[in-house]
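Batch job 17 of 40 flagged for manual review because the log was empty.
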Amino acid sequence: MALITCKNAAFAYEAQTVVQGLNFDVQSGDYLCVVGENGSGKSTLMKGILGLINPKEGEISFGDGLQQQQIGYLPQQNSAQKNFPASVYEVVLSGRLNSRGLLPFYSRHDRQIVAENIEKLGIVSIKDKSFRELSGGQQQRALLARALCATKKALLLDEPAAGLDPLVTSELYAVIKSLSAESGITIIMISHDIRAATEYASHILHLQNKQLFFGRTDEYLQTDTGKLFSAGGQ
């Protein structure tokens, strides 16, 4: 059973259709990169998967026990996030908010999950530091740990390496790949870095206000669209 399925789906922003003709499904453990030019509908699709907007047409559904509110999300960073006045531990712990239900306090189980993800992301040594004093790469690792605390099944990442230097970008992509390979977590990532997308992702979804391609990465690289787009990203 597919984890996430889009069937004849279209999404709009301010009454204008932004992306349409979406027919794809994401299986458990897939690493899907969503690529396309600016304004092609990538972030709008992400909002649709998260339930922040409803489909204008068609439907989006979830399987394998996944609930929409249990999807981990790493949005594009903004200045407010970068200057958030909290410790790394507090930022990561906030990823458990949706799992608390009506409980007024975080449980021992919540804190155990936080500790595991802090270790998994290699940020144990900085967990007590102020988030806003970290480097960009360290902040992204903390936010990725936070997103992991919200899910066991699926992570949505919107340009996670934007603004990072090449070395830190490479390290972050390697971490994300290991999460997919070792933890079996499904990754859906928006990226303008076509070289990274085709190196790490198992599947590609290419948008241009409609679905141009969906399938395995090796198949994408054999299409005219894939050849042209990847050549432009060299």
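Reviewer: the log was empty due to a logging misconfiguration, but the result itself is present. The mean pLDDT is 90. Unflagging and moving on to job 18.
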